[in-house]
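Suppose a colleague, Dr. K., hands you the sequence of a protein chain of 327 amino acids and asks what its three-dimensional shape might be. Before reaching for any lab equipment, you can write down a predicted structure in token form. Begin with the sequence itself:
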Amino acid sequence: MSRERILNTAIVLGLIVFPLGAWLAQEPFLITLATKAVILALAGVGLNIALGLGGLVSLGHAAFFGIGGYAMGILASHAQSYDPILQSPFLIEGSKSMPVIWPVAIIAAGLVALLIGALSLRTTGVYFIMITLAFGQMLFFFAISWPAYGGEDGLSIYVRNGFPGLNTLDPIQFYGLCYGVLLIVLFLVHRLSQAPFGLALNAARQSPSRVETTGLSPYRLRLVAFVLSGMVTGLAGALFADLNRFVSPTMFSWQTSGEIMVFIIIGGVGRLFGPVVGAVVFITLEHLLGGLSDYWHIWLGGLLLLIVLFARGGIIGTLTGRKVAHD
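The predicted structure, expressed as tokens, is then:
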């Protein structure tokens, strides 16, 4: 068994042991932190499909994260609204069921990713980065100017959505649900990377001209990867909104896109568990250093500087001593 596989197994077990220990110690806040890390890791896994496999540096993935969050918020807000005159709840079109909300969030994010990708992928390099950033900011300002769903103040969901057989208000059960979703997506992404599509996408990243000679279209390969990436990130956005029971335009901000990319860089670009390690490190630093200073990002910047200069394989690449083609 390779060192990277051993490390991945340790990460999977660690994400079980830590929340269980917090549950036994009756520390729900730590479980919530772990849940946040798992959900953000899922968003990183989504971006890693485009960045790690396709070599697409996107600064607009917060667009899909926000689309997923607002899909959840809009459906949940319409599922049960409050009438101040009748002083009683009344049901209108919507849903409070996660198995219903998730497909809507995934499809909505996928459609937006298809539109953005179809236009953005006609460019390369810094132009692609700036176009994706522009689309994300367009949606950010649209959300701010959308008073029907809170505008700049955001939209509160007072009761977390339900999942059959689970009490999602119980922190450990909601964590288990999010953890299960993460494992499923990681398995699917692993299979995707080993499938003919993943191999062709990797080849298109390294030498598009050679891929064209085989009759494949690098543009179509990248577009499919971009859409799949957006769909996974949209699912993460729906879960994140459910965790906080709140959606706001900040989910669309370029800072959110940057943070998702930071997860991948810290853990290792192109590593299956790179975004997971990066999200855990980010949330840990935020929790431990955020209480000491509002400027804790200085230490995060120092860590990123060290990784970029001396450990381009990220934490996983450094610990395993294994490099990938684009390190």
